[in-house]
Amino acid sequence: MRRSSSSGISSGRGSGSSKHTPTNLVGSVETTGEEDDSPFHMSVTRRTSDMTNVIGDEMSAGNKTAHSSVGMISVEMMDLNIPPNVDDEGDMENVQLVATKTGKQTSPTATPPRRPSLSRQQSRRKARDRSDFRTSLSQNPNTRSFLANDDDPHFWGVSNRWFADAGEFVGELAGMATKRASDVTNTSNDQLPLTEGREIIHAVDDMDTNYNDNGKQMGGVSFNEEGLDFSNRDDDNELFDDLSSLGDTPTGIFTDMTRRQVIRGAWAISVSFMIAWIAVQVALQHSTTFQGWTSGIHKHQIVFTPRRSKRYGQIKAQLVDISGEEVFMDEASPQHRALLYLADGDTLVLDPHDEHVRPQLLQRYALAVFYFATGGSEWKSRTYWLTERHECGWLFVICSEVDDDGNITDREGVADDDYSNKLDSELTLEEGKTVTGLSLYGQNLRGQIPHEIVILEHLHVLDLGNNHLSGIIGAEFGKLQHLHKVYLQDNALHGGLEAMAWLTSLKRLYVENNRLTGTLPFDLGKLKHLEELRVGQNQLTGGIPSSLFRSETLTKLDLHSNLFTGEIDIHEKSILEYLYLFNNKMSGQLTSDHLCSVSDTLIDLRLNNNSFTGKIPRLDCTMDKLELLSLGENDLTGSIPNMLGGKLPELKELHLYENRLISTIPKTIFDPEKLTAVLLGNNELTGSLTADMVDGATNLAHLYVNSNRLSGNLDDFAQATNLDSLQKLRLEFNDFTGSIPKLNMIDTLELLYLYNNSFTGTLDNLGSATKLRKLKVSNNTFEGEISSELGELKHLEVLSLNGNKFVGTLPPQFEQLSALEELRVENNDISGDVPSGVCKLRKSSLEMFSSDCGGKLPGFSCSCCTECI
């Protein structure tokens, strides 16, 4: 193996009037050889060159003397099977041509080196090698387009290679123009991609050209005012220098450009640029978003910038101060899309220079931005939006006449959140109306509330609840000083509520069931008009601002299902009617003062699922309006105050479940006439249930005393005559004994839970409970055969008989239980086969069916059970 390298000619051009700094190139060839029969791989490294000129620029008029530079030709050829006999100096396996720029210049009159003389044997060998080389290139798809013409006497034409690159550049330019006309990004000029990563060079510098004052000579071919002149061309004088002449190179590659190649190259360039121009025009014709394009060359890159209408610029100038400049550079932004709509798509064509129309133009812009920002095309209803109608005629838009102070003047006696007449033509279609409300509850809005909503400065009502909005409640909301009611509940908003504390006219704020974090602003409690605050089901932390408990306007405070801590500090000036603090981490003790401070106004108090301790306070006042008191799921101890019911005459629901209350159940808690629910489950209460205890509760519908230590039988309780409204009775997990008597309230019962007690006897007295939906008597000591009368309970959905001593077979009447979803009869002494009619229920409603059909010797045969014990 041997390695040789050579370098030779360099050429340059003077400064003159050329547009670019003169550059010269020195070519070098490096080769390595292996066995005579091995192929070699050839790669030509392409490099970036100045593209800001075209051939016309290089050959532009002028009498200045200059000399061209040899540039880099861009192409990569892979896996070319070349005969090893490239020249007589050795065998080659890898050839790499590299051209690098230098500052060295040669004389403008320098004569290109001539091809060295060859012996007859060498000439024959080179002719044979050239033929094999051309055959290899023609068979390779990567290089076929770069071959010289078939009639070219030379073995490879660099000129053809240059024109192929030029054609490739123009073709890719046309493709890029077409693509960018339909999908333009905001990439800066310095970053705009060119031909998708392929660097194409300025190939005109490949010509070794001699300039003089009388004509621009190029290897015997002159470029005069009339075009190309071949009259002085010497057949032995090639237009391009033979690369192999750059010293003593072993490649033997000769390059030449014939007269025919020059003509074909010129035509190829002209046709290619015509094709590119046509492609750009076609792209513009099919563009629906932009009106025109201008192209230019900037910093060696071709860039495309949109050419907008005059109206576009006029409207944009009025919106920049509101939306900023950057949003309009993003072609996909809601602001840019809204601007395009106003400038080119809105058939109303509002005059941006008319001061009387400007408020409507801004109002229309704000609504259009809101439409695009929240996915308007996916709303459930969007009637008249972005049409020629006045924006007050668009569905869900509420308009009114307002005075200079922003007060509504044309809706006397109509609540500003009453949307019943939002499509009334007399109200909403009159020009000059001002947008005072947006009501899009449950319309499938997605995205974020845009900043431009501040343009609608006279908004009184904003109802966007029950959608899919995300983002934060931005500071822009604080500028809407006329907002009375904000409904943003049931979305995916995050962040804090600081901006809401600036809304001095705010009356209602509903933001429950979002993802809000942080603490409640103290200034919320200082809002002089705030009546309702609902922030439940978020992730708010910290203590509850005392200002909320001292507010003289706040009537409804809903903070449930957050992470609030601390104690309650209700002030005597509070006029709270509804206080929801359940599902938090509140602590401390409840006192009579806490409750009595709001005794004249409080209607609903829910403090369940916190960490309150101590005893239930003995009230020193009568709470004349309290309807619901929920203290369940805390850590309260002691007994239930004997006179509690007497202090709460309007009480409808009493929730004391899941505490550590002891002693018996006082009769007085059933005294309120309107009482509908008493929930005392999961405590440590003792005693029994009697008829006189509940005789006064004529409206009682729910009685839960489950999971206590109650005992005795139900004989006395069954005689209660006034429980005509009782629907749900839960006695499970106690120590009740005896049989099930005939209950006077049996006709109204829908749910009866008696499981995990010590009841005995049969279930014959339950056959008349025709409204019963759920019956659970498992884990007692009931015996005998299962009553067939249970098959008459056609509304029954759940029937649990497991864990008793029932015998016999499963009544065939059970096949009438068409609503049955769950049936459990395991852990009994039932035998025989399951009735076929019961198995048919598996095809309709019955989802869960368990029995003693398992084991080696099952006593019950069941082919349709879902679980065999």
Looking at how many chains there are and whether they match, the oligomeric state comes to single chain
Determine the number of helices (DSSP H or I, runs of at least 4 residues). 13
**Strand content bin:** 15-25%
The overall strand count is 48
Helical content (DSSP H or I, runs of 4+):
10-25%
- Apparent shape: flat
The description of the largest β-sheet is: 20 strands, mixed
* pLDDT averaged residue by residue: 75
| Cα end-to-end separation | 87 Å
Content-based structural category? alpha/beta
Radius of gyration: 46 Å
Uncertain regions spanning at least 5 consecutive residues: 1-112, 145-167, 177-257, 286-305, 412-431
Key terms for this structure?
869 residues; alpha/beta; 20-stranded mixed beta sheet; 13 helices; 48 strands; 21% strand; flat; disordered N terminus
What features would you describe in this structure?
17% of the residues lie in helices and 21% in strands. It is α/β, with parallel strands linked by helices. β9 (293-298) and β10 form a beta hairpin. It is flat and about 120 Å long. The two termini are 87 Å apart. Residues 1-112, 145-167, 177-257, 286-305 and 412-431 have low confidence and may be disordered.
Walk me through the topology.
Layout lengths: L2 E9 L12 E9 L8 E4 L10 H4 L35 E9 L17 H20 L18 H25 L27 E3 L2 E4 L2 E4 L2 E3 L29 H27 L7 E6 L2 E6 L3 H14 L10 H12 L12 H16 L23 E4 L24 H4 L5 E6 L6 E3 L12 E3 L4 E3 L14 E3 L6 E2 L12 E3 L4 E2 L15 E3 L6 E3 L2 H5 L5 E3 L4 E4 L11 E3 L4 E5 L2 H5 L7 E3 L4 E5 L12 E3 L4 E5 L4 H4 L5 E3 L4 E3 L14 E3 L11 H4 L7 E3 L6 E2 L15 E3 L4 E4 L12 E3 L4 E4 L12 E3 L4 E5 L12 E3 L4 E4 L13 E3 L4 E2 L1 E2 L2 H5 L7 E4 L8 E2 L5 E2 L1
Parallel strand pairs: 3-4, 12-14, 13-15, 14-16, 16-18, 17-19, 18-20, 20-22, 21-23, 22-24, 23-25, 24-26, 25-27, 26-28, 27-29, 28-30, 29-31, 30-32, 32-33, 33-35, 34-36, 35-37, 36-38, 37-39, 38-40, 39-41, 40-42, 41-43, 42-44, 43-46, 45-47, 46-48
Antiparallel strand pairs: 1-2, 2-4, 5-6, 6-7, 7-8, 9-10, 11-12
